[in-house]
Specification:
- The complex is a heterodimer of chains A (115) and B (112).
- Chain A is built from no helices and eleven strands.
- Chain A is mainly β.
- Chain A is globular, with a radius of gyration of 13 Å.
- The termini of chain A are far apart.
- Chain B contains no helices and twelve strands.
- In chain B, strand 5 and strand 6 form a beta hairpin.
- The chains are: A mainly beta (115), B mainly beta (112).
- The interface between A and B is medium-sized, with 26 and 22 residues.
Chain lengths: 115, 112
């Protein structure tokens, strides 16, 4: 049971390049989400999904696309990288939200630098 | 507006000192949940506790304790007899609906 995995661990991009950050979970979780972590700002929600085929925007969605074609995978696409997207990206998953809200499991993170 | 404020950016203590990390939140929801996460230097996020808005009992887990006060919208975290392994960034988070809203985090450094 690998939990939540993210690839790559590190990535350097030039401004304007596109790329996809991969996230996969093997816990059959319905809910998956992407956060970015910037110094002094905590984690901010980019996009989330409550199940295959369903996605929604979080707090900072601009410049990012997501899709959820399977329960296991939730890739994050940067369409045209900008230096402002330099950050550490975390993927998280959990059972479907209910009461009490289940614990979210976080991946190890992807450190992205855009030059 | 939903918001979490962790006013302490960095705290430095000497081992065995007690330390309290502050968390103040804003929400208009009557039902909500609060969380604390730990991020050690290795970078992963570790779940510590979840608390719902109807349960104001303090909770203790070993050297960790949490004080939830709805009247002041605070959910503070105390580490008793701190240890070097407690050095990490600690995040408080608020859960409305399907989202987790994080505070900016408090970096705790425990020196031997």
């Amino acid at each position: 049971n690998a939990g939540v995995t993210q690839t790559p661990k590190f990535q350097v991009l030039k401004t304007g390049q596109s790329m996809t950050l991969q996230c996969a979970q093997d816990m059959n979780h319905e809910y998956m989400s992407w956060y970015r972590q910037d110094p002094g700002m905590g984690l901010r929600l980019i996009h989330y999904s409550v199940g295959a085929g369903i996605t929604d925007q979080g707090e900072v969605p601009n410049g990012y696309n997501v899709s959820r074609s399977t329960t296991e995978d939730f890739p994050l696409r940067l369409l045209s990288a900008a230096p402002s997207q330099t950050s550490v990206y975390f993927c998280a998953s959990s059972r479907a939200f209910g009461l009490p809200p289940p614990e979210q499991y976080f991946g190890p993170g992807t450190r992205l630098t855009v030059t | 507006a939903q918001k979490v404020t962790q006013a302490q950016t960095e705290i430095s203590v000497v081992e065995k000192e007690d330390v309290t990390l502050d968390c103040v939140y804003e929400t208009r929801d009557t039902t909500y949940y609060l969380f604390w996460y730990k991020q050690p230097p290795s970078g992963e996020l570790v779940f510590l506790i979840r608390r719902n808005s109807f349960d104001e009992q303090n909770e203790i887990s070993g050297r960790y304790s949490w004080n939830f006060q709805k009247s002041t919208s605070s959910f503070n975290f105390t580490i008793t007899a701190s240890q070097v392994v407690d050095s990490a960034v600690y995040f408080c988070a608020l859960r409305p609906l399907n989202k987790l809203i994080f505070g900016a985090g408090t970096r705790l450094a425990v020196h031997p």
